[in-house]
Design a protein that fits this description.
heterodimer, A: 897 residues, alpha/beta, 5-stranded parallel β-sheet, 4-stranded antiparallel β-sheet, 16 strands, B: 550 residues, 8-stranded mixed β-sheet, two-stranded antiparallel ribbon, 54% helix
């Protein structure tokens, strides 16, 4: 989006037409409210950007179909200009005209018809440039079908619009019956505006609608050309005499009753009348966008000395920020549209008790209701005051607007990550709860600027983005940050374009059924525009992954990405693709049971590992993960939570490896622990049939905690994504945990695939010898890569429990292990027989207990018993003690005391 | 005049050896990017990559040319129709006029506030000012005045009735001796006429009193408002009001709590699968009219206004209204049963804001023909298929029936009255019911239940945030209402209301609503608890807050 510059924010409201009672669309579902349709169509407009257009910024919908549109606004309009200057010279008019044409041509290229051009919404900015505003009303209202008022004022009405009559809406499709206006409708209006500029006042001023319409009809019916007919008016004729032939020609080309004889805006732009203006126009500079193959420097012109000086000495750094960003900050600074509208007297004023109908029939129609006059179209624009925002940001030093991103790789510890430049004063804020941070304007300001700079240096600055994302992700830049975290790169648009998303396929029907049920509480995602995009992205994914099929749940996975990158399907698609291949590898195979079974088995292991009591209870009542957790994992919780919670969850999930989602599952169970423990089978089913409220921030914190206290090999899955071929050295080795286990080189000491039956028969996860060496610091503490062990001299987090025969133990074991032989360990009642080793076991309960045995099943059975007895964090050494034979880690235990 | 048109696009490219031509039909205007279309063409027809750019630019040119021609054609056709007189110019202008005059503020006539609305504005301001207490006290004074008259009327009528009974008894004793049967009839008729005269006298007296009070009250409100507009710091009326209000003695705790004796239980629930909205449910056991009736509230022997009055008055013109569903029969009057009782309550004090009940009924009646038209139309369109197969004679007879019953209310219809003088309610939905509500096997498609859906929808549309619904769809206990009958009905209603709430909350804001489920007085306490235990199984209660000792 362009920089704010000297612009204001303008607010307009209008009411969408409400549907007749209880009508259903062709698909049998109730009709989408017009306000939602408008909301969806608006998004395209906010992606348009041109120096001659007022940027659209945001739209929102309040009660009762009232739409609030926020756009760039300037305080002077053309009407005021001609009022002040009285009569304009031909050069001035040509200059203004060319700029209007410039904007119109861009709109027409983008398939948007203005239809609403008037002296009041052609604005002039502080530098004297023309800015068209309100050009999107016709487009966003589906060519006038979604509102009950006509678009455009009578005196500017092109002949074909007038002749087609007011918009009639087709009851079945909801679109308008008449053909929609083409771009040449704007050219007629442009002609009328030129006339008004020449006249120095409004044409047909002071005449009623009826008279004005009759005048236009006269033009239509007349055999003369419209211009000649108009020139019969003495004042206009007199005024026009002073103008050149070229001006006459342009007017004639605009004011042709027959559309085929009218010139197009692009043709008019090339007209000789504008040749001088044309020479001095500068090409429109493209703005930065993250994934594009277009050259950013294509139209680059180095700034002149004057421009640099002007920029350098401007104190208003805020005006250099993009409009979207400033608007976002404006809202954080306490800007509230409702109260602004209320102050301006534009919100609904009549009390509802006066509007109520007095009679209703069974079919749902009501009678006797009164209309609220506030629903009429009000063309007033309210300017939002930036005072409060600027006041809030007054103490921010200018340097904060341009933070330095020095490369700190030269610092003494090359392994360490660069510290965040916003770290210093922001560290205190960074510890506050996320909801507070997201509302803190200063904090957000620093974060956004920092991210924005990092993102424009993507992928070069990816390590930094990664680093910052560990603190938090500001909502404004989330779409791009996620793309960066998912390592989306390259010509995403080209790739997306090349996929055929139109040709019908076998999955279309299922996709069409699923979309209208997917996150439909979200206003944007429930719009028809979103449904079309949904379908395209999903189809693109299915087509580009021929090894996979469409499973229900894919729609939920798509939703967060689409909601974030609504105007950039290609990025949404690329993110989704990267996300699925990272976290849901093989999940969407036609037969995915093996993958899911393994996933669920590992999940049960983790429950037993972290919460044996809960695990025992759930197993006791037969409430296994298969009954509730499949939708969790298949959609990475996108089906379970509302979008505003998913984004926070995924902010963290994207940083973890593919096992992190398992820990989220454990932490959800943790939050419901008390209830689950008191519930029987039926109540548990009922509880999860409609997921209760979950405190998502706590859930995220808990899952990080669980994640960090789980040995990596414990969540090993054979179906996880294998080692990626590409060399990803540019990503820093931030921590032991953010890497996937599967991406590390395999050795004899690593985990190996196990059969499902084996996995299911064991309650506890297995730990690899590698992990044991590392976490138990058997090879000395220096090589530790684990972030969980903060202090170098702290005790190892592992307690090794050797369950072999006492004789075997005597002959050699791992350092620091204790011995409880399986044969003699348990009493007939199933309790542990007391002995010194059991005492040690009980006294070190918060450590990870690694059960070490021979190759047989003794170790696993022993571990199962420990879980039954409520010991937490129990795991079994994979392949038993034998795996250490090749190493020199087996030592003789100290003699018995 | 089509919105889109299909055109044939042909593209030729040369290689060293061959000339290839590609022909494809293209719909203009094109919805998607032409780039995408080119990619599709390349894929399907296996085109060489070097034609890519050329194809794209050719296609772009073709599409824009054809699109422009389509627009031109449509535009010219429209203009031509007017030029050759196929469309009448005056008609056209007549169509445009209302489009502008009724929809654009700049052309519309400025909205004139009616007297009622002006009063509403002033009242709303005052009720949220220090004048509030006085306002209420004044209203209360007036209502005491009405009460006096009603009491007198009742006494008078009672007296008359007693006297007439005595006369009649006397007369009956001497039937055959002194009086003949005709004389008795004559007496009865005379007595009846007398009663009517007396009743009529009282009714008109009451009406005059209402009118008079309303005029006085409104004048007073406007006066106070003007006073308060004038002077800046402490307008004299405040003092006047203060002194007035301080006369009232403070309430004793006992007195305050004396009347709270209804059985009720509240729940906070979450609705929605992913996005949850919070709402409140309340189950209460009381007489439906208790929500309307002002209970005598005495403090230190003085009758003073109830605290509920305050809330109801303050929210009357706000966006937070309270509604009540009252079951009624299909006659629009208030002669019998609960309708009569309700009318009595309405008349027991003056409604300063809305017309009298009778007057509101008249307005409703005016709407009935309109509604009948819509009904007939709907019926016609849905029965169209059936009608075709039927003989014409039967269909015409049904039409006639429809005409006769033009003004009839049907089961499932509802009419709505507004009140400012009821205790906890602003809006009353009178739902038309029929006798089959008593049977135990009604379904979710029953007209009354559908009507409740329409009402809930209306509540969402018009900011009625609290709605009271008779849970068992009856206001009184009766014989057939066994425990299983009640449980079944309660379950049906809970589930339906839940469904309606979820349906209506789609697309609308996240505001929370309160639904009060009313069960008739006389329901056993045990059954009440059974019903209340059902709520957690049907609705998802919000997370219980578990307090832990450490």
């Amino acid at each position: 989006m362009p920089a704010l510059g000297s612009a204001d924010f303008g607010v307009r409201t209008f009411y969408a037409a409400s549907h007749p009672n209880d009508k259903c669309g062709p698909n049998g579902l109730p009709l989408t409210p017009n306000s939602i349709k408008i909301l969806g169509r608006f998004q395209y407009l906010s992606a348009l950007s041109h120096p001659k257009l007022c940027q659209y910024i945001d739209i929102s919908k309040t009660k009762h179909e009232c739409m609030i549109v926020i756009s760039e606004h300037h305080r002077t309009c053309l009407r005021e200009k001609i009022k002040i200057e009285n009569s304009l010279s031909e050069t001035q008019i040509a200059n203004i005209g060319f700029q209007i044409l410039d904007g119109l041509t861009y709109l027409h290229e983008k398939k948007v018809v203005h239809r609403n051009l008037s002296l009041d919404n052609i604005l002039i900015d502080k530098q004297g440039n023309i800015k068209l505003s309100e050009y999107g009303l016709y487009y966003m209202t589906d060519y006038g079908a979604d509102v009950s008022f006509p678009i455009g004022l009578p005196r500017y009405m092109p002949p074909e619009v007038l002749c087609s009559g007011p918009v009639k809406v087709d009851e079945d499709t909801g679109h308008c019956v008449q053909p929609t206006s083409g771009p040449k409708a704007d050219v007629w209006t442009f002609g009328v505006i030129l006339l008004e500029l020449i006249l120095g006042k409004e044409i047909w001023a002071g005449q009623g609608i009826e008279e004005v319409l009759m005048k236009i009809i006269e033009l239509i019916k007349s055999d003369m050309s419209a211009l000649d007919h108009l020139c019969q008016d003495p004042i206009l004729g007199e005024k026009l005499k002073g103008f050149s032939k070229e001006m006459w020609d342009v007017l004639r080309l605009c004011l042709a009753v027959s559309s085929s004889k009218r010139a197009s805006s692009a043709e008019l732009k090339q007209h000789p009348l504008f040749r001088y203006v044309r020479e001095f126009t500068v090409a429109h500079k493209k703005e930065f966008s993250m994934f594009t193959t277009e050259l950013r420097c294509a139209d680059l012109e180095l700034p002149t000395y004057e421009q640099t000086i002007a920029n350098e000495f401007s104190d208003d750094h805020l005006s250099q920020r993009s409009m979207q960003e400033v608007y976002y900050l404006w809202r954080l600074a306490g800007g509230d549209l409702d109260s602004v509208l209320k102050k301006a007297g534009m919100s609904k004023t009549r009390p509802p008790v006066h509007l109520l109908p007095c009679y209703g029939i069974l079919a749902g129609d009501v009678f006797g209701q009164d209309r609220d006059y506030a629903e009429l179209l009000n063309n007033t624009v309210i300017t939002l005051s930036q005072e409060q925002l600027r006041f809030r940001l007054r103490d921010i030093p200018s340097t904060a607007f341009y933070p330095l991103l020095e490369d700190e790789l030269k610092s003494p510890e090359p392994q360490q990550l660069p510290t965040s430049p916003s770290y210093g004063e922001m560290t205190s804020s960074a510890t506050l709860p996320l909801v507070i941070r997201e509302k803190d304007i200063e904090y957000q300001f620093h974060r956004i600027i920092l991210y924005e700079r990092l993102l424009s240096a993507y992928p070069f600055k990816r390590p930094y983005i990664w680093r910052e994302a560990r603190i938090d992700v500001p909502p404004l830049v989330r779409a791009n940050v996620w793309a960066a975290l998912l390592e989306v790169e390259g010509d995403v648009e080209g790739l997306y374009t090349s996929i055929d998303k139109e040709t019908p396929t076998a999955t279309d029907r299922q996709i069409e059924v699923d979309i209208p049920r997917c996150h439909q509480y979200h206003e944007l995602l429930s719009s028809p525009t979103a449904h079309v995009k949904f379908k395209r992205v999903l189809k693109a994914w299915v087509l580009s992954n021929p090894q996979y099929v469409y499973w229900q749940g894919l729609d939920s996975l798509c939703a967060p990405f689409l909601a974030l990158s609504f105007n950039n399907e290609a990025v949404a698609f690329a993110c989704m693709n990267a996300f699925i291949s990272k976290y849901l590898h093989k999940f969407f195979m036609r037969d995915n049971s093996a993958v899911i079974q393994e996933y669920l088995a590992v999940f049960s292991h983790l429950i037993a590992f972290h919460d044996p009591e809960l695990s025992n209870h759930l197993e006791g009542i037969g409430f296994i993960p298969d009954l509730y957790a499949i939708p969790w994992f298949l959609t990475m919780y996108a089906h379970v939570f509302p979008l505003h919670k998913i984004v926070h969850l995924w902010d963290t999930l994207l940083l973890g490896n593919s096992s992190f989602p398992l820990c989220i599952g454990v932490s959800i169970l943790q939050q419901l622990r008390d209830r689950l423990l008191s519930f029987g089978f039926n109540e548990c089913i009922l509880l999860f049939s409609d997921m209760p409220e979950i405190d998502i921030e706590r859930c995220v914190q808990d899952s990080i905690k669980f994640f960090c206290s789980t040995p990596k090999s414990a969540s090993y899955r054979q179906h996880a994504r294998p080692l990626a071929q590409k060399n990803s050295t540019e990503r820093p080795n931030i921590s032991y945990y953010s890497r996937d286990y599967h991406e590390l080189p395999q050795t004899d000491l690593s985990m190996e695939p196990m059969s499902i039956e084996e996995l299911k028969s064991e309650k506890c996860p297995r730990i690899s010898a590698e992990d044991l060496i590392e976490l138990g610091e058997l090879a000395g503490s220096a090589s530790s890569r684990s972030p969980t062990k903060k202090r170098q001299n702290s005790k190892p987090m592992i307690l090794i429990l050797d369950v072999r025969h006492h004789e075997d133990f005597k002959r050699g074991t791992l350092q620091g292990s204790i011995n409880i032989p399986f044969q003699t360990a348990f009493s007939p009642e199933g309790d542990l027989n007391p002995c010194p080793a059991v005492h040690v076991l009980n006294s070190r309960r918060n450590q990870v207990i690694v059960v070490v045995g021979n190759r047989g099943r003794n170790a696993a059975n022993f571990a199962n018993e420990l879980v039954r007895l409520g010991y937490s964090r129990v795991c079994v050494l994979h392949k038993g003690i034998d795996v250490f034979r090749t190493t020199d880690l087996i030592t003789l235990p100290p003699a018995d005391l | 005049m089509p919105h889109t048109i299909e055109k044939d696009f042909s593209y030729t490219f040369h290689t060293k050896t061959t000339n290839s031509t590609l022909n494809v039909p293209i719909t203009v205007p094109m919805h998607n990017d032409s780039k995408e279309f080119v990619a599709r063409l390349t894929q399907v027809h296996n085109l060489p990559c070097f034609v890519h750019q050329d194809l794209e630019s050719k296609l772009d040119g073709f599409v824009s040319k054809e699109t422009s021609q389509l627009y031109d054609k449509n535009a010219n056709e429209a203009v031509e129709k007017v030029r050759n007189g196929e469309i009448d110019v005056n008609d056209l202008v007549k169509q445009w006029l209302p489009a502008y005059c009724q929809e654009l503020k700049m052309y519309a006539k400025p909205h004139q506030l009616s007297n009622d609305e002006r009063f509403a504005e002033v009242y709303h301001k005052l009720i949220h000012s220090p004048a509030l207490e006085t306002l209420l006290n004044l209203e209360h004074e007036y209502s005491l005045g009405v009460e006096r008259v009603t009491k007198e009327r009742d006494r008078d009528l009672q007296h008359l009735q007693d006297k007439q009974r005595a006369d009649m008894d006397e007369a009956l004793k001497s039937v055959g001796s002194v009086y003949k049967d005709e004389d008795i009839n004559l007496l009865a008729q005379k007595q009846f006429e007398n009663t009517q005269i007396v009743e009529g006298k009282w009714t008109s007296e009451l009406r005059t009193l209402h009118e008079q009070q309303k005029v006085e009250y409104r004048e007073w409100v406007f006066q106070v408002h003007e006073d308060s507009q004038g002077k800046a710091p402490l307008p004299p009326y405040v003092q006047r009001l203060r002194s007035l209000s301080s006369v009232l003695p403070d309430a004793d705790v006992e007195e305050r709590q004396a009347h709270v004796s209804r059985l009720e239980e509240s729940f906070t629930i979450h609705l929605g699968a992913q996005m949850k909205t919070t709402h409140n449910l309340r189950l209460l056991c009381t007489d439906v009219l208790d929500l309307c009736r002002h209970k005598p509230h005495t403090i230190g022997g003085l009758v003073i206004p109830q605290p509920q009055r305050l809330q109801t008055a303050m929210s009357l013109y706000s966006n937070n209204l309270c509604g009540l569903v009252l079951l009624a029969d299909n006659r629009l009057n208030s002669y019998t049963g609960i309708k009569q009782k309700f009318a009595q309550i309405c008349d027991s004090s003056t409604d300063f804001h809305f017309p009298t009940l009778d007057h509101q009924f008249q307005v409703i009646e005016e709407q009935l023909p309109k509604a009948a038209d819509v009904k007939a139309k709907k019926k016609g369109s849905s029965d169209e298929v059936d009608q075709l197969s039927l003989h014409s004679s039967t269909s015409s007879s049904s039409d006639e029936k429809e005409k006769v019953g033009e003004k009839k209310l049907h089961s499932g219809d509802f009419y709505l009255t507004k009140h400012s003088n009821l205790s906890e309610v602003h809006v009353v939905f009178h739902v038309v019911t029929d006798d089959n509500l008593r049977t135990s096997d009604i379904t979710s498609r029953h007209p009354v239940i559908l009507s409740i859906r329409n009402i809930i929808k209306l509540c969402f549309r018009y900011d009625i945030h609290t709605l009271t619904v008779p849970l068992l769809l009856t206001h009184e206990m009766s014989e057939e209402m066994t425990i299983s009958w009640c449980m079944k009905r309660a379950e049906l209603m809970f589930k339906c209301v839940k469904g309606f709430m979820i349906e209506m909350a789609t697309y609308s804001s996240q505001e929370s609503r309160t639904i009060q489920f009313l069960v008739p007085r006389g329901l056993s306490e045990e059954l009440f608890h059974q019903i209340s235990n059902m709520i957690p199984t049907i609705f998802r209660l919000s997370n219980p807050l578990v307090v832990k000792s450490n």
